[in-house]
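RECORD CONTENTS
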Amino acid sequence: MSTPTASATDTVLITPTQLQALQAAEPVVLIDTRDADTYAQGHIPGAVNLRETFTYLATSTPEGLQELKDTFAAHLGAIGLSGAETAVFYEDALNSGYGQSCRGYYLLTWLGYPKVKVLNGGYSAWKAAGLPVSTDAVVPAPAIFPTDLAPADVMLTQADVKAALGTGTVLLDVRDVDEWIGESSSPYGRDFAPRKGRLPGAKWVEWYRFMKPSAQGPVFKSPDEVRAECATAGISPADTVYLYCFKGARASNTFLALKQAGFTDVRMYFGSWNEWSRDPSLPIETGLPTVANAPQLALAA
C-alpha cells in the first residue's frame, strides 16, 4: 500500500520558474526572510523584506501565542497579505538560513492562511537559474490581514509536550548534533540558554538530512527520501510526531518536509528548547544518548 503524498495542487514547494509563472498568473506577495543588509545587496524583484519571520521568539503560554498571532497579523498585513494573495517565502539557501522561510510557511499554516508556498532552493536557486535580481527597495501596499481564519491544529504548548513524555508520541529533535548531545544550548552560543540537553525519550534526525545538493544548491529531498530518513530513526508516516528545535525554525523545515512526504499527524512545539530549557522544573536528558535511545531496527530473517 503506497503512502499518500501531496498532489500538484497542494504542493508547498515551488521552483524559480514556477514562481515566475505564478507571479504572472495571480497576485503574489513574495517575502524575503533574510537580514536587511543582505536583502539590500540583492533580492528577487518585487520581494518585501520581513526579517521577523526568523527572529521573533515566542512562548507557548496563552498570552505568548496571542502575542505571536497579533504580531504577525500586523506584519503580514503591512506587507500586503489580505487573504487573496499567495504568500511565497524564500531565504538565501536552505542549508544556511536555519529554516527561516519554512518558519513563515509554518506560521501562516497555523494562522489558517489559505495559500502559502516556499521557494525550493531559495535565493541561491533563483540566481543559479539566471533569473533577474534587484537592489530596489520595495514599498508594499498595506492590507488588512484576515482575522477570521480557522487556525490549523499544528501548534503545541509546553503542557502538550510535557503530557506526551513517556507515551507513544514521537518527540523528534531536529537540532544540530552539538545541541542534541548537550555540548551547546543553542545556535546562538554554547550557553545562550540556561540548560543543555534534550527532551526525555526524544528521537533525533538532524534537519539537514531532509535536504540534498543540486545544481541550484540544496533542495528538499523527495517524499520517498524523506520517509527513508525517518525510517532510520524508527519513525513512520502513521506516527504522531511532535517536532522541536531551538525556536521553531529548523523544525519548520522538517515540518514542511514531513507534510510533503505524507505525514498527516505532525505538530510543532514552537517555543522549543528556548522555552523548555528556561523552566528548571521540566525534565531533560543530558550527556551522550545511550543505545536504548537508538532506533530498534528489525532484521529480515
